[in-house]
């Protein structure tokens, strides 16, 4: 999709905004009237040429790569999450979701995460260096392409730039970028827009518009943006009076602020302390060549907020990256409404034979699973139960000793579950919040007595019947699909032997291995029964 260098399409214009600290004289925090207008004019008057800073190598910060491919909506691409920051992933998800919404609106077809039927090389999920800085040129047909680059890796600060290009083979309809910076020290994160001091937004907006007008870019921040995600194309339609009517001035101000956020969200801090901001195509005159606004280091300091200065100082300091405390895969952020997820589960453990082998495989593959453990096995092999928990896999109860719960009295059902839950909590330090009834045998009475979600499955590998390793592989892969819960047993050599190839198959088809908790999120609650997960479709709007 990406061909020539970003600067090859046409002139790249860089607005160098300086003057907050000019000639050694600080500008007061509050200026009025003509003084304020003069300062804005000074900021807008200093204009130079430049380019986006080169991205870093993809593995610089250890992002957890994601890959989506949806032929129905002509959507594909990749992006990454920072393991140490859920907030980082949430910012990325919001940008990706908005991009998909625009594409869905354009093609009139709903989006759901999906996987291919056969391996399609989708296990390669890392950002591809340079794909956010080159010219957009869609290869064929209507489509949305998402790309990513690592842009910061210094101290505890990591940065990612994600780009969404939408259009056809003949023309690019929309091209916009977001940068997300996150801290591995405290998990905080912000987009490029959040780097700036809120009290400086009006100055920035006026200076950018004045400079853009002088460069022939038109009224860059005036009007509204039809971004395909809401009826009026803005996040806020303006203030309303007592009759619910929105005033024109308030609506214009709201639209301008929305456009400013759209512009600033792509801000990249360079190693010299300057900032480069690729202008979204939605803000430019139709058919205009790409434009980059650049703010030099001396001016940028006065525009940044506290978090922005923290990011700037880290990027300029160029210290070795600190990934922070390792976060197990099963506890990392993932959005199964956007990416294709699948949960593999293991029953009947733990033991001292197959359990450690399976855990080794999962660690080697950087994969996660959900274990439904028998209380008596936890009592017999506490070290293995602790190892499961410490590796970040989810644990649920599988009763004490595997009886058919629907055949037991109320007291015995309670005993089977409570003894198991108590034993797991005592050994691992955490009490499970889900269970799997032995044989999948559950009814309303058992569900009510349990009081926590019952997790079943919709792909049964039948490994317990020892069908032969080839057959087990075929059953596990041919029936797998997005949102599936796959049943294995933690006591069979055949499962140990086939597991690596099964995991590879899932990933090559675009599926991400998650725990049951990650698969369902907040929906995993109450005493309901869960068998598989169907993502909420992103439907066309307007």
Summarize the structure in words.
The protein is of the alpha/beta class and 542 residues long. The chain folds into two domains: 58-219 and 259-317, no CATH class; 331-530, TIM Barrel. The chain is 31% helix and 19% strand. It is built from 14 helices and 23 strands. It has helices at residues 33-45, 86-107, 201-214, 248-264, 297-303, 306-317, 354-365, 375-380, 382-390, 410-428, 444-450, 469-478, 493-508, 516-520, and strands at 2-5, 13-14, 21-22, 25-26, 48-49, 64-70, 75-81, 134-136, 143-154, 157-167, 172-183, 189-191, 268-269, 275-278, 292-295, 341-347, 370-373, 394-397, 454-455, 459-460, 485-489, 512-513, 529-530. Helix 1 (33-45) crosses helix 3 and helix 10 crosses helix 11 (444-450). The longest helix has 22 residues, at 86-107. InterPro entries: Glyco_hydro/deAcase_b/a-brl (IPR011330), NODB_dom (IPR002509), Polysacc_deacetylase_ArnD (IPR050248).
Key features of this structure:
TIM Barrel; alpha/beta; 14 helices; 542 residues; 2 domains
Strand order, main sheet: write it out. Answer: 6-7-9-10-11-12
Proportion of helical residues: 25-40%
Q: What gross morphology would you assign?
A: elongated
Largest sheet: 6 strands, mixed
What is the distance, rounded to the nearest whole angstrom, between the alpha carbons of the first and last residues? 28 Å
Mean pLDDT level: 87
Q: How big a fraction of the residues is strand?
A: 15-25%
